[in-house]
Specification:
This protein is of the alpha+beta class and 145 residues long. Helix content is 19%, strand content 36%. The protein has a single domain (2-141), classed as Metallo-dependent phosphatases (Purple Acid Phosphatase, chain A, domain 2, 4-Layer Sandwich), CATH 3.60.21.10. The strands form 4 sheets. The protein has a 5-stranded mixed sheet, with helices on one face. Strands 3-4 form a two-stranded antiparallel sheet. A two-stranded antiparallel sheet has the order 8-9. The termini are far apart.
Length: 145
Amino acid sequence: MEIQKEVLLIHGAPSSDTTYLLETVEHGRARLATQREIIERLGGTKARVVLCGHTHVPRLVEVSENILIVNPGSVGLPAYADEFPEYHIIETGSHHARYAILEFVNGCWQAEMIAVPYECQKAAAQALKNGRLDWQIGLQTGFMQ
């Protein structure tokens, strides 16, 4: 979704909801992608701000051409394992719910990254009830083990 050509909202990368924009998976872990990888994945977008998600990892990255990329993180799944593009683990390191506030101030975009506690024990209990033992630990700790 594009908001007045200034802000682009995507889930993964502009070309695919299942491709990470800011991370590259290697050896079972996700690392911060290089600027070159990120620019290639952006595919020539002209937006000054790109809001993305998919990895649940809160990040604020600025790449060349004055593009600010914000992944606010996850409200309810701070750690998980995934099979695509290969088996890997994503961990934020805490159970906090995360969001961002984006503002245009004095001609510049800025983002405030926020993490707040929530009743993660209830979410973990619900995950267990739903048969997601793998999510139970992640919800409680932000780690998979």
